Amino acid sequence: MSATPRRTWAASLVTAGLVAASLVGALPGAPAQAATASPSARLTNLAHLDYLTDTVNPPAQAGHSTYRLAQEPGIGALWVYADHQADGSYRRVGGGQYDATTNTYGQGAYDADDISRAAVAYTTAWQQLGDDHAREQARALLRGLTYLQDDSGPDVGNVVLWMQPDGTLHPSADPPDAPDPSDSSSSFWLGRTIWALGVGYAAFQTADPQFAAFLRDRLDLALDAVERQDLSTYGTWQVVDGLRWPSWLIGDGADISSEALYGLVAYYRASGDARARRDLTELADGVAAMTTPGWPFGALLPWTQSRSLWHSWGAEMAGALAAAGSALGHDDWTRTAVGETAQFTPHLLVQGGPDNEWLPAPIYRDQIAYGADVTLRNLLSTAGATHQTSFRQLAGVAAAWYFGNNPAHRPMYDPSTGVTFDGISPTGDVNLNSGAESTIHGVMSMLALDAAPDVAAMARNSDVADRVTWSYTEAESGQLSGSAAVVHPTDSWTGESQWSGDQYVSLTSGGKLTIPVDLPTTDRYRVMPVFDHQIAPARSVGTQLTLGGASAGVQYQGGAGAQGVSSVPGFLDVGSQPTQRPVAAGPSSLTLSYVGDGRPARVDGVLLQPELEWVVLRGSGSQGQALLRSFADRPRHQSVTVGAGTIVAYAYDPQGRLVQTVVGSHGRVNAPVAPGGFTMVITR
Fold it and tell me: How much is the mean pLDDT over the chain?
């Protein structure tokens, strides 16, 4: 799928792997696990991905060539979209407006983003399953991908994103990509090309040394581009709203760089190349620095220009850091990965799964296979690096997305056809199209599950029986009194974040906002206003918070750090103020009252987070699992019922380490939950 500015990518996704390290079992030192699934039990089906592949004979085009082009003029390509038809079949289509007269698309028929990832998926299938057909598909697509790469000229090493049905390259698409032309600078497709070339080299090194040597040469060109455009500033830090973040990530993205890391890990493991190790180290250092205090609860952030934006798609950072840490012996990178997968990921899974984007309010809650797959493989990669069972157990919850643990409560992957649907709306509507990106990431996930049958078995526990988690309410939905007003900004996009609902509430002296809410459980709550964190004295402006008559203190809105390279001074932030006592379940009232020196307090909305949240998933018969996550600063217990037999609660600390095990019977257990930790409850 083509790149669009980060502000609109999530909204467009629904509507329209590393060979070994990301699949855990192939990592040296990985924990013992069940054997790979037998052919009859395999989830992986390449049929739909095969349907999307094509062969094209491109015309001669300056600066573009590939392996044995004269002898083998046909190169591999992959249709970017597949539209669902009334009879249940699919029709392959390109991106952008189609012109039947010229047989061209505004964007193109095939793109490097998908060709690169499909090459990774096919290479993985070949290596893991011994599938010779997958090997030939991988070779064909790697030849097609390298044709898209500039082999000479001022942008040598960069990659053209789009190709038309006849093989003509289309560097400037409609709508335009960033960058434009698409091979003029660093890009997502450059990072993904590095992923594919590194994985391809590692696989073909012995099977076809001449082809592997060609892939190595093209990887060198890609690294030339990255070193020229990005790594030349290695060690130079930039200020982003008070944070010290790297200036040298590919295309300013930890997401882009993490996918390149997977390729570099595979290449370095196979070759021991010193240059690859250096570039890998520099990129991993940058990705590991993309942390922030508070929101979003331990997650690494994807974009070096905003501390207010997180997305699930492409968020490969934790998995790539775990793989890189294992390969190079960098325990610090692995610890950073654990910071996300042991703290943020349990909350993500409990609250409903891999939402597309939080900006920082959770307003783009569509879900796609790209986000589900990344979440799953991040956990498996971390499990492989740490040898901790906790992450494999979480992976079972993450993988259940494909089988019904999602907003639609229905399977998103069909193992009989290899179709993965394109996405789910927040209200549970399924987009039945099945384009390249969804298909590829569905295949990657199924390969991961086939390599980990224990996780695959847990994933079948996918029927949501109970979910208690946070809720979000727009500020403007409440009753305003005194000096309080709804404000409609000229543009809801700030350049680095977005006002949800295209509006917010401004309060000054005497202003008050009262919001009716419905609480899911009796508990202490974290009141989490989404607010404008301003460059002002720390306690100069804020709101006094009260939920159900219980005070939650003051959420101050001053104290933002220096603007630096971010788009605007200050940033949208998410606070966290605990109620002083439990609040009863049911209808209640939240009030925000202005405090400060007269400068306005700006509130986008409010998240209400119970200190203890959970999801209960049921499978066939008496099988099931539950996940609990604590925001409390003290030990908690919660009665959980799953199935009818023996049940075990495994309590983990915020680093994913086992701290307590409790066995229950008749499907019920009083599950302990460590402060800031999580607990998995599993039927035996």
Answer: 94
